[in-house]
Every structure is written in structure tokens, then in C-alpha cells.
Amino acid sequence: MIQINLLPVREWRKKEAVRQQISVFILFLILLTVALLAVGLTIQGKVVAQRQELASLEEKKAKFAYVNKKIKRVNEKRKQVEDKFKAVEKLQEGRTTTVKILDEIVSSIPIDRLWLTKLSLKKNNVQLDGVALDNHTVALFMRRLETSSMCRSVNLINTKQKSIHGHALMEFGLKVNIQTQHRKNKKTKKRAKKS
Question: Looking at 26-166, which runs of residues are DSSP E strands?
Fold first, then answer.
């Protein structure tokens, strides 16, 4: 038996081509949808992982906040202790400075020729009052003080003759400007450089 195709071949080929194009388009849409779902799921997984990591870091931060508070308290206590040490060092320095000043003054006094009656120390100034046998003894005392490394300047405030137990003595007042330790070191260094 012979079969005859009643449909024209061209029409049949067009329909077949359209069907193939529709099949390819549908297959492409299916593949695109699968790819987008895969990418979406991957991104979703990364977002979930990042959220979990963020939550974990927040928990660690909360734990370390306690440690940070402790560290802050310890640093504050350390600063207080350092401030106390600085205050003690300053007091210690002031104590030794006073002793050094008194030693310089005492070593500059001409023995059995000059006597101090009053000594007052305020910051870097020393007020000295006393009696001496004569003006030359007062001048000698002033020169000795001026040569001292701790004295910046020595100024005579007043002198007057006074009779004590029938002896004519010179009553005097001096103002001595004391050099601080820091400046003394600079002065000593300058002298060493000149030598």
C-alpha cells in the first residue's frame, strides 16, 4: 500500500522548526530557572553562614566586653599607682633638694665669724638672716654662696650694725635664688663641654 502525504512538505517543516524552537526555548527557560535557583540557594547559604558568624561574633563580643571592662579598670588603677609613684618621687626629690641646699649654705658659712638667725625656704628662694663680725665676713659668705653650683644669684637685702652683749656686730639679710636640679644638670653639661 502506498501512503500519500496530503500535507505539503514545507508546512510540515515549518511546524517542525517552530516545535523545535519552542522546545529549545522551554529547555533554555528550564535551565535558566535551575541556574538561578542554584545561584539563589548558594547566595542564601552564604547569607545564612554570614548571619551565623555575625551572631557568633556578637556572642564573643559580649564575652569580651567583660574582659574589656576589667582591662579598663586595671589601666585606671595602674594610672593611679603611677601618679602616686610620681608624687612620691617628686616629694623624695624635694626632700633631697632641701638637704642639699642646707648643706651648701652650712658649708659656705665662715666658722666663728657668721651666725644664721633665720632661714626660710620658699620654692626656689631662700631668705637668710643672721649676724656677722663685719661686712667683709658677709661679703665672703655671699661669694662662697655664689660659687656654689646650686645658687643662681645671691642678693644682699640689708645690713645694719647692731650691738649684742656689748659687741658691735653686723646684722644682715640675704636672698638666695636656688637653681633647680634640671637646670643644674644643664649647667654642669655646659661646663663639661667647655672643658
Answer: 114-122, 125-132, 151-164
Question: What residues contact residue 132 under an 8 Å CB cut-off, 6+ apart?
Answer: 110, 113, 114, 115, 138, 141, 169, 170, 172
**What CATH fold (topology level) applies to the domain 90-194?**
Gyrase A; domain 2 (3.30.1360)
Distance CA 102, CA 128 (A): 11
Cα dihedral 69, 71, 72, 76, rounded to 10, equals: 140
Residue-wise DSSP of 38-75: HHHHHHHHHHHHHHHHHHHHHHHHHHHHHHHHHHHHHH
The rounded distance, in Å, linking the Cα atoms of 100 and 188 is 16
Amino acid code (one letter) for 81: V
Q: Tens digit of pLDDT for each residue in 8-32?
A: 777 778 888 889 999 999 999 999 9
